[in-house]
Amino acid sequence: MLDRFSKREKLFLLAGFLIVGLTLYYLLLFSPLREETANSRQQLENLEREYEDYLSQIEDIPRLEEELEELEEEVGIADEAEGPDRKENVLDFLDEGLARHDLNLRSYSPESAEDGDFVHLQLAGSYHGLLDFIGRSYEHYPRLKAEEMYINMEENVLEIEILLFLED
């Protein structure tokens, strides 16, 4: 079959097959490998950047620990400041809160226990006033826990009876 072609035609056929073969190699093997290599390099650069970020964070650990110690000392100082006259602070807060939210204090009875102080309150006022007062109480005194709460609506006035526990 190849005998029918001249030497020149055989060279053209060989060159054509060679070009088709090289094109297929480029499209099917070389190009995808080159793209995969570029993706791998990008991933490696991202990992190196991430590694450098982690190293800088590790270098910041001693400084952050010092800041944490300072903050813990400040919190400790604040707790000590609340210590002996804490009941007076709560009373001042109650007086201010009752006046601000137009609430009526119907009953107040403090009690002491080994692990903290109890305060039994009966308050009357608007829904929003009572809700805001209780929310601000928890913000001001995060160690304040409501042990029992009873709510009653009487003549468009919301009454709340609450037993608060202030942990030591």
Automatic annotation (TrEMBL):
Keywords: Coiled coil, Membrane, Transmembrane, Transmembrane helix. It comes from the Bacteria. Residues 30-81 form a coiled coil. The keyword NADP does not apply. GO terms for biological process: protein secretion by the type II secretion system. The chain crosses the membrane at residues 12-33. InterPro entries: T2SS_GspM. One of its GO terms (cellular component) is type II protein secretion system complex. It comes from Halarsenatibacter silvermanii. It holds the Pfam family T2SSM. The keyword Lipoprotein does not apply. This is Type II secretion system (T2SS), protein M.
